[in-house]
Specification:
The chain has about 425 residues and is α/β, with parallel strands linked by helices. Helices cover about 40% and strands about 15% of the residues. It has 18 helices and 13 strands. It binds pyridoxal-5'-phosphate (PLP).
Length: about 425
Amino acid sequence: MTYYSLNHRSAPVDFRSAVLQGQAPDGGLYFPSDIPIWDQHFIDSLANLNKIEIGFRIMEPYVGESMRKEDLYAAIASTLSFDFPLKQISERIWGLELFHGPTLAFKDLGARFFSKCLELFVQAEDKKTIVLVATSGDTGGAVADAFYRMKGIEVVILYPAGRVSSIQEMQLTGYQGNIHALEIKGSFDECQQLVKQAFVDRELSESVRLTSSNSINIARWLSQQVYYGIARSQWMETVDPVIAVPSGNLGNICAGMMAHHSGLPIDHFIMSCNVNNVFVKYLSNLQYHPQPSLHTLSNAMDVGNPSNAVRIMELLKQKKDGMVSNAVVGYSVSDDQTSQTIKEVFNAYNYLLDPHSAVAYSSMNHYLNLHPRKKGIVLCTAHPVKFPESIEDLIDQSIPIPPAAASLFNRKKEFDALDADFAALKEKIFELV
Ligand SMILES: *Cc1c(COP(=O)(O)O)cnc(C)c1O
């Protein structure tokens, strides 16, 4: 398996180089040269395999010769050290809870797999490795936790001032050591722009090994396919599930669509966005127009120019029937609908959704009303306790903190405040070398 740049001006590379580079030298995102087709026996036996076997089987062809089989197996096993339960919420809707990892959001899986890959790949290097990450909330915490105390690797996290929840902020700023939090006076899009600029900067690339940990990195992006295998392995209904994915940078849903392409039995995807819906519009009119992002309750999805948009376009190009609508429909959900959904689902079913999962639930509900025989899975991407500000008033009670996360709440906060200015970021990075 090789990976080519979607800008088509760099040479294809193997898994190892693509992970180390993050982004191709021509600025493009990497995409696999061929998408594996799973054998029928694997698909039929999903219900009998455990999550680690499922993860290993899905990732093996993508990793290829870049890792020894036993190293890959160990990386998958330590990545998947928590549960991903599928719970029935209402008559035709189930929730796949992806928030039982250390930072209570679904990005733990991708961040942990990426960190294990990087740890193996940089062992023999003498250049310092710097992981740069722009975060709209959850990525930064997951990456900080995954890399904390890893030798030879420094992590620099850029997050937009005043746009992350107080718990997310604790997760971003509470690690120290090899983790460096930068509060940027600007939007998430500006943070992302700064990271992109760093990757094309000659001076930086000569003195450090820079790599990105945003979902553009194939280790993070592709490992998310495992969720869909795990979802399907727990699905006991006779009809194939519709799956609604709360979407921002579109990494997670694009991974799901790759698994679908490989043969995973799924009825359909729903791309569930908040009012930042440029790709939902693309799905209906095939016009792609990035927009400045708007602030919403589901802040991890406040993205105006989703980085994985180009990957979905590439994947849709490869679909034999060429019919976008056969694979995915898009919905855009307002903050009012999000709040209403959290309230209704809590009152009717005693299940508490976080704002991101509520966006997906709301779209699923809408879709199932139009398709009375279908059933669906909503990906629950964050634990509601991460968003007390937007939830507690709606349900009129406080949310108990899960015991596993209690230590998050008594950490010391440390960060540097920075203007959205590339020269200032560069100076910070040089301080770490
Ligand atoms: C990052 C995030 C999303 C969006 O995922 P993408 O892969 O960027 O589309 C959704 N929900 C939560 C809680 C997130 O942290």
